[in-house]
Design brief:
The structure is a homodimer. Chain A has six helices and eight strands; from the N terminus they run ααββααβββαβαββ. Chain A is of the alpha+beta class. Chain A has a single domain, classed as Aminopeptidase, CATH 3.40.630.30. The N terminus of chain A is likely disordered. Strand 6 of chain A pairs antiparallel with strand 8 of chain B, so a sheet runs across the interface.
Chain lengths: 168, 168
């Protein structure tokens, strides 16, 4: 997993040109791409979300959400037959100035617990920081609160609480 | 405060044409406008934020944030001399499909505790619902958690936690 080590080791500076739409390669390993390209097959994304048990959402609304997100990151595995497979996804909404909110972070179950989610989030933080956005927020399910905490996310700073409104 | 009663009473249906950029009037009272027009004097907005003790932010970034917000609502008082004064503000980022996050909710101290903040939030919820956005989120300071709770916002539903990342 040399490509992941290179990606995730904070002491190694991975040039953004390498992370952005280009391949992270390791001899004898499948290759992993991080991409900012939004032109993806939404049925493949739906399949990925199915894999982690998310409720299905109308494709037309997913398309709109991707169009209107500030940042969309996809993670791809390229196999030896050169075919690529979507194995990760995340996106962020933002005002392009102060705040961003990260949504829909997903890694294919086969690729979980290998640091790829961490790499994806570090990539997102890096991209948002490059846009001078300093307040990055998200809403974490209970089972991933510790995952985000290890990435530097803070719970309820100064008593600030995340709140939700749903139609009744 | 007839205009507020009309605005806030949930049993009275206020036509959106009336709420959107038009005046809510009551005989003998100053008139209050809700507006979706983003073309506002950012120094006047800064002055309003000063009134509630918010830290100053670069005008250029505030301009960008307003430009890239999904929804911007301003509240105006129009006095007898026809001059208008900014007395409230809020904005929301969104993916235009699933999620919206409300930021920078402010009511001038002189106009607080009169239901105007509630009216502003109900207006925002209404507008977001009209855009078929069902997940409305925000990050509430401890002293306004109950205010948002009364508006139907829920704290940590199913253990979901709001988390923040700031540059170290």
């Amino acid at each position: 997993m040399g490509f992941l080590k290179r990606l995730l080791n904070p002491t190694v500076d991975v040039p953004s040109a390498q992370l952005n739409d280009s391949q992270l390669e390791s001899a004898g390993q499948p290759r992993i791409f991080f991409s900012l390209d939004r032109d993806l097959d939404l049925y493949e994304l739906e399949e990925l979300c199915d894999q982690v048990g998310w409720a299905r959402r109308p494709i037309r609304k997913v398309r709109k959400a991707i169009q209107h997100s500030f940042l969309v990151v996809t993670v791809w595995e390229v196999r030896n037959d050169k075919r690529r497979r979507l194995i990760g996804f995340a996106r962020a909404t933002s005002d392009c100035a102060f705040n961003a909110t990260v949504w829909d972070v997903v890694i294919h179950p086969q690729f979980q617990s290998q640091g790829l989610g961490k790499g994806l989030m570090q990539f997102i933080i890096k991209k948002l920081r490059e846009s001078d956005i300093s307040n990055i927020t998200l809403f974490a399910d209970p089972q991933v609160v510790d995952f985000y905490r290890r990435l530097g996310f803070i719970l309820d700073p100064e008593g600030i609480k995340g709140m939700f409104w749903y139609p009744s």
